[in-house]
Amino acid sequence: ETGVTQTPRHLVMGMTNKKSLKCEQHLGHNAMYWYKQSAKKPLELMFVYSLEERVENNSVPSRFSPECPNSSHLFLHLHTLQPEDSALYLCASGTTNTGELFFGEGSRLTVL
Amino acid sequence: QQQVKQSPQSLIVQKGGISIINCAYENTAFDYFPWYQQFPGKGPALLIAIRPDVSEKKEGRFTISFNKSAKQFSLHIMDSQPGDSATYFCAASKQGGSEKLVFGKGTKLTVNP
C-alpha cells in the first residue's frame, strides 16, 4: 500500500465513450502526476500538477484532459480515445524537492 | 531521443547469483538517479537512489554503482532471490526534483529457484 489509490483498476471503453480515471493521495504531497505505461516503452510522463497548478503537459493529445481540484485528488478525463491509447495509466504523487515518486497500482485501460 | 538507455531488456539469473542492470544517460545536468522496482499488477516503487557526489550506495543486497565520467550507473542485486523477480526501471532527473524524472525502458528480471 503506497498511499496512492487509483480507480477504476480496469476500464474497457469504446472509441466514442467518455470516462474518467481517479487518483487520490493522503500523503501530504504537493505534486501529482499522470504517467502512461505501454509495453516495451519507457514510462511516459503525461501531466504534472504542482500545488494544484499544471506545470507539465508533454504534448498529450487533447482527448486526455486532466483535472486537479485539490492537492489530494487528480482526475484524467478520457473522450474519443483511440485503440493505441490502451495502456496502464499510473498516477503518482511526490514532493517537488525530494525526487521520490509514490505510484498507485494503475488503471488498465482498453479501448475497443 | 531517449535520454536514459537501459540494458538488458530482460535478464534471467539463478537463485544466489548476481543480477546486474546498466543505464547510461546523456544529460550532464542530471543529478539524481533512482531505481524503481515494479511487480506485476503493481505500480513502480522506489528501491534505491544515488546522487553524483558518491560513486556507490548500498542498501542490503542492492547496490548502485555510479560512474560520472562515463555517464553510467548500474544496479547490482547480490544473492538474487525469486522474490526479486520484477521489472526494474532506472531514472534520472535534474535538480533532484520529481517533476522531470526520465525513465529507462525497464529490465524484466527473472530469478529461477
The low-pLDDT segments of chain B are none
Query: What is the first-to-last residue Cα distance of chain B?
Result: 38 Å
In total, the number of strands of chain B is 11
Oligomer: heterodimer
Give the helix tally of chain B: 0
- Radius of gyration of chain A from CA coordinates: 13 Å
Q: Give the helix/strand class of chain A.
A: mainly beta
Mean pLDDT across the residues of chain A is: 89
Q: Mean of the pLDDT scores of chain B?
A: 92
Strand content of chain A: over 45%
Characterise this structure:
The complex is a heterodimer of chains A (about 110) and B (about 110). By secondary structure, chain A is mainly β. Chain A is about 0% helix and about 60% strand. In chain A, strands 2, 4, 5, 6, 9, 10 and 11 form a seven-stranded mixed β-sheet that branches. In chain A, strands 1-3-8-7 form a four-stranded antiparallel β-sheet, with no helix packed on it. Chain A is globular and about 40 Å long. Chain A starts with a strand and ends with a strand. With about 110 residues, chain B is mainly beta. Chain B contains no helices and eleven strands. Chain B has strands at about 5, 10-15, 20-25, 30-40, 45-50, 55-60, 60-65, 70-75, 85-95, 100-105, 105-110. In chain B, strands 2, 4, 5, 9, 10 and 11 form a six-stranded mixed β-sheet that branches. Chain B has a five-stranded antiparallel β-sheet with strand order 1-3-8-7-6, with no helix packed on it. Chain B starts with a strand and ends with a strand.
